Amino acid sequence: MTLQRRHFIQTLGATGILAAIGNPIGLSLSQAASGARIIVVGGGFGGTICAKYIRKFSPAASVTLIEPKTTFFSCPGSNSVIAGLHPIKYIRHSYDKLGAEYGISIIHDMVSSIDGSNNKITLKSGGQHSYDYLVLSPGIDFRETAIEAYNPEDETFPHAWKAGDQTRLLRDQIRSMTDGDTVIIAPPARPFRAPPAPYERASLIAHYLQENKPRSKIIILDGNGDFSKQDLFTQGWEKLYPGMIEWIGIKDHGGITAVHGANREVMTASGNHFTGQVVNIIPPQKAGLIATQTGLADDSGWCPVKPDSFESTVQKNIYVIGDSCQAGDMTKTGHAANSQGKVCAAAIVAAITGRPIMDVTYNMSIYSLLSPKYAISLSENYQLTGGRISKVSSDSSALKAKKKTRRKEAQYAAGWYKSITDDMFK
Amino acid sequence: MKWTTISIVTLVMLVLLWSTSSMAQNPSRAELLASSCFVCHGQGAKGALKIPPLNDLKVSDIKESMIGFKSGEERSTIMGIIAKEYSREDIILLAEYLAALPD
Ligand SMILES: Cc1cc2nc3c(=O)[nH]c(=O)nc-3n(C[C@H](O)[C@H](O)[C@H](O)COP(=O)(O)OP(=O)(O)OC[C@H]3O[C@@H](n4cnc5c(N)ncnc54)[C@H](O)[C@@H]3O)c2cc1C
After folding, report:
1. Measured between beta carbons, which residues in chain A are less than 8 angstroms from residue B51?
2. Which pTM value belongs to this model?
3. Do A167 and A160 meet the contact criterion of CB atoms below 8 Å apart?
4. Residue B40: which of A1, A29, A419 has the nearest Cβ?
5. Dihedral angle at the C-alpha atoms of A221, A228, A310, B80, nearest 10 degrees?
6. Residues of A with CB below 8 A from B48's CB?
7. How high is the ipTM of this complex?
């Protein structure tokens, strides 16, 4: 009999047997999960949430979060910092509470490689760690561009598409402009992180210029033929900053072909030259380097995942969330990464305890500020249909809304920012 | 002897398997659904700046508001679309969970 039982236990695995025999000796399922080692890579919008909610859903699970930076600078809110509406500390957050209050082990280091067949990661400092479940939320990296003489690291053309030093750099360049100077903002072809954010940036820079350098202008050299919430942005620009923002779609310039650093010049396929005292090129993007380097991305540059759990379709026990994953119709935003982090946390706890994965509706809402007292929003719902995450409904602020409503939405945007960052760090 | 023990083990396993299926899942559906509200309504749904708290509302208030947002009867800037895809059952789960959160 002992033999048979041992065999049975071996076949099912320790957590499986606990799930199977229920709770005869007072062990909770979360205690059963205590054996499971979970490593989360990347302490941004997806990673912090997944780590924290695994601990909330399964308090005995061992969770390690690996993130090189000791303080996090968020991209949401960074356009306000660039426009001088908030000091940089508005977007700076500490990891202390995640460690102290949620019992997450935090390692400030970079994951340099992943051995998916042996469930091991190696850190830049040389250490190795084993995992049962690995979650990657490494954000984005930049693609090679066809733009001659351009390099995203070149401080002449700050991208400010990862927050921190780049945010300060762009802010300081805007500050040192003289009245009458031009700002060029060049968004890449979609998909990219936060599709409305280039236009929020243009709006808030316009707000700063209107107050400080009213003869200055902004040119948007878009890599697309249209853009997110275009009617609402255009309406707002006409009201708030008439004549200040000029949008040029891809058809009318043909794409940026080269830059000239010495005189901050941008050349386009249409043969035009644009000169700006500030040139903000937002490079095309792909999944975070660690994900592509591990072979988790496909030809699109993003990582395919199972739509109910975010487990990679390439490598078992590795989950990819946030900007790096291909989540069907989901827009790449911090709010989407937050929803994915929670669903992935629940799916991992379900896997550990041998339970089915829950099927839920996801929401992604993104506010864009056009001025400190004028905001618009876009909200999308997604559900699992036909094996993919599909957008089932969406809406944005009404075109006819009154000034009072735009002002209310600006207050809600500030509330959203406080709540989502508290969700991550408090 | 061998066969009897095997069948007893099997029987015990079957009974226990059946009993676990009635055990609560972690997280509960209500907890997972409600976690998506915290992104705007704050930790523990205590509210954030001008976004109202939910933890101080009654179950019936949350339920009525959600049904009103969904139908468009209750005016809103964003809750109309957020409430749209929730089934009646999920609205009840949400209302009960959120109203029970500590003040
Ligand atoms: C200007 C701007 C404005 C935006 N505004 C909004 C907004 O208003 N609302 C909204 O919802 N979204 C907004 N976004 C989008 C949002 O910032 C991203 O969608 C979100 O950050 C994605 O989360 P993530 O977890 O995938 O990546 P991130 O939040 O970028 O986190 C990735 C983390 O992984 C770490 N990392 C990377 N590689 C490794 C490695 N090898 N080892 C260890 N750690 C690693 C990085 O250091 C980083 O901290 C905005 C973006 C921009 C650029």
Report:
1. 412, 415-416, 419
2. 0.91
3. yes
4. A419
5. 160
6. 415-416, 418-419, 422
7. 0.89
